[in-house]
């Protein structure tokens, strides 16, 4: 047995996230992160995933029994409608479009997604942060002491939203989901204080960009 063998990752599964990033009019970093987080929640609460007989239910259960991975890819031109033709949920938000797909083995990604680039999705942020939506919404903050690409940040925000969905107080989570599962990416928060008060925190598995165990994101619900 390999020394790095992990039964929780045999074989690895992941949720694929596809970001529409046209050269002429790319979305901004924050909008992509917010859209990705909402898209993850909408997949997990979609009847196809949440209903007892839902066609995605078993895949979600299998994935959540392993190490939770998300892979962010970018699509432009004809590649975007090809991705949209596959089963999933698209969120359009503040100029960003992100489609999340039911999870599956990383060795069995549909060819329409497998051909999309993973590395290098790094977008500029808006000069002025957008105002938060009407409550209820999720607040996500990224660790200001680390540097990660937009693709990595989108995946971490997706992780944070997923943990909040699964671990937040049931009635508050239900109200958030019922209202559309809006997400606000907070900037310039007092990180150390927020870490103490956040409902959930994400620690990275260390597969890409940063060391394992690094705290990447925190989240809580604003009611």
UniProtKB/TrEMBL annotation:
<dbReference type="InterPro" id="IPR023476">
    <property type="entry name" value="Pep_tRNA_hydro_II_dom_sf"/>
</dbReference>
<protein>
    <submittedName>
        <fullName>Uncharacterized protein</fullName>
    </submittedName>
</protein>
